[in-house]
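quick one
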Amino acid sequence: MKNLTLKILRSVAFAFCAVAASFHAQAAQTAAELAPTPQMGFNNWNSTHCRAEFNEAMIRGIADKFIELGLKDAGYTYVNIDDCWANWKRDANGNIQANPVRFPSGIKALADYIHSKGLKFGLYSSAGTWTCEPKEENRGFPGGLGHEKQDAATYASWGVDYLKYDNCNNENIDARIRYQAMGEALRATGKSIFYSLCEWGENKAWLWAGEPVGGNSWRTTGDIEDKYPSMLKIFKENVVLNSHAKPGRWNDPDMLEVGNGGMSDTEYRSHFSLWAIMAAPLMIGTDLRKIKPDALKILLNKEVIAVDQDTLGEQGHRIREADGVHVIVKPLKDGSHAVAVFNETDAAKDASVTAAELHLDKTKKYTVRDLWEHADAKGDGAIQVKLAPHATAMYRISAL
Ligand code: GLA
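structure w/ alpha-D-galactopyranose:
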């Protein structure tokens, strides 16, 4: 009898330890485990801003589209909501709450729905007294400043997997202090919550947002607009920051505009290619319930996505910028290299990249795979291409 009791006690203790260990393993996820490659997903901001169409029916519909359109299979994981989800006021206990008109079922129910599809859910707040919208004085949605622990605990209880933390109404308090406070609060929940800083590069977050703040990505620029000059400007600001990106810690040149209608398909292909070669987050910013086939095809280009998601985790570095042509090279885990050749100008260009520029081995032969044409060429690895205005060609070069 005594033996049996001991046995039972031992197995109960063993089961408890196993559960505790698995919980601990989850809780202890390092940045590189949580974000081994740049985040992929959706955020409503670029398509809806604060308009009333941003509501729970829309976000559920987007989660459904992730499955129906093959986006989940292509690696898109996070379904995130941006500003304007919260109620105007905290409740009597100071808890942040959802806007009852937009999200009548509450945020937890939405997170549960998204999780039921095998996807992850992200939320937005600001490291300030209020968020960024609306812009009228003395009216706003509550921000997280001074409420970090309480809000992080609320988010964790709702099942939030990702927090985008903005920079509006920051009372001129040092950014490092504000972002550190939320980083600590998120860690204190014991959950692995992706931490996406959004201070627009104003305080050079790439220098401090990784350690000790614990950020997994940080915005490097102001807001993108659905216009070619905006995309171009942001690309130029972000491309020089390549040395600051690594697994768990990514430069974020803002979300994608692909599909929103303000750029041509050629320009959207450049946008997607440049973001991928820069190992940028691939956060879809268009309403997937209305997306046109050409835009969807861009977002589903698995060969370009594979460049973004390569586990070596290097952001491509620009090896040449001359005459409006940019050549960016990203070393990949299997020893091959991705190369993007981008013509920023309004004129067509004949561009070439030599094997020597790419430091290829003269004694070897290479396959040059065109990632938009999905076709191979064999040779010394050199590239020759005719580029339309604003176009990007993208390749993967591997030794035969
Ligand atoms: C800032 C951010 C945007 C968006 C809006 C919401 O401008 O940079 O990405 O989140 O706030 O108000």
